[in-house]
Amino acid sequence: MIQRISEPLGDNGERLGNKGRFLCMMSEAGFLVPDGVILDREEYTRFLNENGITAAVEELLSEMNKDNVAEISEKITALFEGKHFGEELHNVLKESIDPSGCYAVRSSGTKEDLQDFSFAGQYQTYLNITGLDEIEVAIIRCYQSMFSPVCLAYLVNHAI
How many helices (H) and strands (E) does the chain have? Predict the structure, then answer.
């Protein structure tokens, strides 16, 4: 599912990361928030499935421990290289952007800011991104950043 920041959140909030959800809530409350789109966790799962890497990511994560975080990180992020969005998401993004505009592409993970844990500053943000191709690459790099050594070490060290 794709959620526009300018559209009512409805029941979609639980599928969005905190940054994205709060941007929608601020927009609904009347604050001036630049419009954009948020890809929910289902779009991430679809990306993994369409590119055939779901099982490999899950297997590598199941093998992770404190001693092999860097190695697992490298293997998982490599799985994302050369991958692309499916036609449906590609078309939705194409319709959603102004080809002459500059965009910020930010992560907004569902596990980013939990009650007892915080991933603040650990995921990537890309600024001044132009054009559909650069936006897609930046989104995939945000996905990869979930598997950086820092993020994975945080998961292992906090038994998340």
Answer: 7, 4
